[in-house]
Amino acid sequence: MCGIVGAVAQRNIVPVLIEGLRRLEYRGYDSCGVAVLAGGEPTRARSVARVADLDAQVRDCRLAGMSGIAHTRWATHGAPVTDNAHPIFSRDALAIVHNGIIENYESLREMLRDKGYTFVSQTDTEVIAHLIHRVYRGDLFAAVREAVGQLHGAYAIAVLHKDQPDTVVGARQGSPLVVGMGDGEYFLASDALALAGSTGDFVFLEDGDVCELTLGGVRMADRSGASVRRQVRHVSAYGGAVELGPYRHFMQKEIFEQPRAIGDTIAQVDHFEASLFGAEAGRVFAGIDSLLILACGTSYYSALTAKYWLESVAKIATQVEIASEYRYRESVPDRKALVVVISQSGETADTLAALRHAQSLGHAHTLAVCNVATSAIVRQTSLSFLTHAGTEIGVASTKAFTTQLVALFTLTVTLGRLRGHVSATQEANYISQLRHLPAALNSVLALEPQIIAWAEELSRKEHALFLGRGLHYPIALEGALKLKEISYIHAEAYPAGELKHGPLALVTKAMPVVTVAPNDAQLEKLKSNLHEVHARGGELYVFADADTKIVNDEGLHVIRMPEHYGLLSPILHVVPLQLLAYHTACARGTDVDKPRNLAKSVTVE
After folding, report:
1. What is the pLDDT of residues 6-24, one digit of tens each?
2. Neighbours of 563 (CB within 10 A)
3. Torsion of CA 122, 124, 130, 132, to 10 degrees
4. pTM of the predicted model over 0.90
5. Closest Cα to residue 376, out of 352, 394, 353, 397?
6. Catalytic residues
7. CA angle 301-259-279, nearest 5°?
């Protein structure tokens, strides 16, 4: 969601701050701003437009400074208007930017009003600003440490004070924050990507950490106040990942990067061995009796797909939960279960909280499927598998989803082999199928011209149904999610057998029905469901394997998939659904990469 950039240097750091915000635009935002200490006073520029507008303001007023903070805001408390845009000031002495949500801000606001503070915004962030200002006694580091002890909720903050012109202080709890280590200059950011080009060396702060950046270096303290040193990690340059190249949108680029992303992910898999998931994985896998998978959004649909694989191939009981629901319900823990958490960013707030909840219930065996090696989720689980999707800029996930499926299939076959349900011959066949996936995906991507024609028709509709059966029902769910996310067409997905239990009442010629039709064991059942729609005048759009004998007819439109791919078919069938959503959104003229009301990395509850 929101993005933070901060810096202390012996040069004008405003261009660094603005470029950092540009790199974080993909996360989603509705306002942005920058503040520096200029002439001994905090000075800011804010905009409720794009970063380009902020940049123009900065240039017009010649804003410059050697220490500063910047922010892209996704509105939570208060509308997306200039008064609520960050940085937020306290009595023209202190400036702050903040990601997260402060749960006790109302009681703190009342206390601060009683102390004489005036509030000019509706944000919970202003509470933090005034709270730090109130306890400030000449040491910003100490004031931030004291103030955050009174906060309940999630936050990452960066703070300036006019009395300490060469200092930026940061703190985090439940929201990511990294320190960039430069040559005589130091940076803060909510995502290392923001600092690509400025530094490649980072310290990833832990929950409860407070840090102080000065020209002399960085000091850190943990939640107890004890001085700490965190490991400096080198992160390879991100530069090319944020270049659009010949594509119209990042989402389109990332759809077409899937053969490469999957190839990179499977390159680490020569055999299905426990060591792929960590040094202790063999011991852990030998002692588990079930799986509990926790995820949100698109990652949740990858987990639903994996449940079919895990129970049919590995013969292991698997429970899948929406992370934000799991953490708030009474559950009966099975301490011999392997808890698997799935997140593209590894910073998803609900998934992180669900992981901690599971651990508090006594779940000792945890595994992360993630795209970011340095993320909080990877650091907080004992085992992990990295998907190697590369940086994903578009809000609607594409290559992260398909590489998650590859990771979960690898986990499935590994557990199946260890449990004696996958023979050496089957293992070799699965390896071969994985190796062939990139080529198979290229054949699917070649269907784009046919899909564009369907998208033109679909773009004139306001509602759509998606159908799938068995292993492909979660793929229908993912297709519906993609369409609603970026085209704003209302879309729902159902198991096809559920049509006659209610959704069939919605079917008319005005309600397109998009169907995933692989040549699997449930094909004939699915054909019966298609007849139910066709007989009632519904308009069918079917992605069918070549040998399904489903043919074009009036009201029945068919695009033939290049080949049936068995258990890995979901990875192929989701790609045309991604393309359909993308081209439908293009036809409707929506902001594909930054859909309204949505953010890339959901770091607040």
Report:
1. 999 999 999 999 999 998 8
2. 16
3. -160
4. no
5. 352
6. 2, 600
7. 70
